[in-house]
Amino acid sequence: MSWLLDSNICFLNHGSYGAVPQPVLQYQQAMRERMEKQPLQFLGRDLEDLLDDSRGRLADFIGVNKDDLVFVPNATVAVNSVLRSLVFEAGDEILVTDHIYNACGNAVNYLVDRYGVKLVLAKVPFPPQSSAEIIAPILDKVSPRTKLALLDHVTSATALIFPIEELVARLKARGVDTLVDGAHALGFLPLDVGKIGATYYTGNCHKWLCAPKGAAFLHVVREKQNFIRPLSISHGANSTRNDRSRFQLEFTWTGTDDPTAYLSVPQAIDFLHSLYPGGFLELVGRNHDLAVAGRKIICESLDVPPPCPESLIGAMASIPLGKIGLSAQELNLKLLREYNIEVPIVPWYDENSFVRISAQYYNYVEQYEYLARCLREVI
To answer: How do residues 261-283 score in pLDDT, each as one tens digit?
Structure first.
């Protein structure tokens, strides 16, 4: 296997942090060695062109212009960069859903506390039976004070694929800018950020694209770039250069760091393309089919219906466990310590919990059968 994952662990949680294949790690290490042999040459003279090449490969992969794309360490940094750059007045509304990732919710709450922004919560049912059940409650919460909608592309806890292209278009028609948290989307599904048309879109490279930890991107439409600043203001803020945008100058250098995760993104893209004759798209289809099969095995074992249509899930699936008599953390640790299974147990409303399975190239059907047997024993 091309991953370093412990063979003694039934690893069904690629979704949380990803896992880096050995060829990508080897490339990253080679870049680190190049950097350490001549740090001044690498960081001071070579890095900008290397980052341009890497951004270009990623931009082609997601259907955008590389000049509208910057690297950031993770999607949470990107979300904070946008939220902290925008100007809000007391009473302005930020629309989110109850499926929002906790870290992003906290970033919005910071604005609520500091500037008097109002958080407006759209409750999206789980399980939904159609995309319409996702769209309607979001649009119902739009008001004349809605300044921004912060929406997931793939929800973390419930593993739903939101109909993000339609949501963005319908919100735009109402004059609402969108910030899309696509933390899971890159490598999870065919991603065309340009076609989606969000004002701001961020995604992690370290999850389903299998790049090293510390690699993500932020895409900003051209007309908004002058307003978006990195969290760390550095040399680009007063640069006299005119060969590239202020947006690029500021985000390309925010201080000394290890940029090799960004530089390894093309290797991750190439690796995923190499796994099947049909390349990345065949991998996406295979992972989706495996997640559907794993969900079916667990649902049948626990005698619960599949919670949503197959079209609303990708390479992850969340299955309701109901009230389990243990906390989510206790069940998670019990499965790990007693059965060597690494899988997230996600708490939800009314003391209910989900088990969220992931399906990556290294997973296989028997692992879900084993998880199903173990769940029957402990809940």
So the answer is: 999 999 999 999 999 999 999 99
- 233 CB neighbour count, 10 Å cutoff: 12
Concatenated DSSP letters for 308-344? S-GGG-SSEEEEEEE--SS-HHHHHHHHHHHH-EE--
Examine residue 9 and state whether it is found in any structural domain, yes or no: no
Domain check: are 157 and 300 in the same one?
A: no
Read off φ and ψ for residue 321, nearest 5 degrees.
-105, -10
Q: Alpha-carbon distance 60 to 54, whole Å?
A: 10
Same domain, 161 and 228: yes
Q: Report yes or no: 276 and 350 within 8 Å, Cβ to Cβ.
A: no
DSSP state of 43: I
Structure-model confidence comparison of residues 19 and 127, the more confident one: 19
What is the model's pTM? Answer: 0.97
Last residue of a domain, one of 269, 289, 308: 269
Whole-number average pLDDT of the chain: 96
CA-wise closest residue to 152 among 116, 105, 113, 197: 105
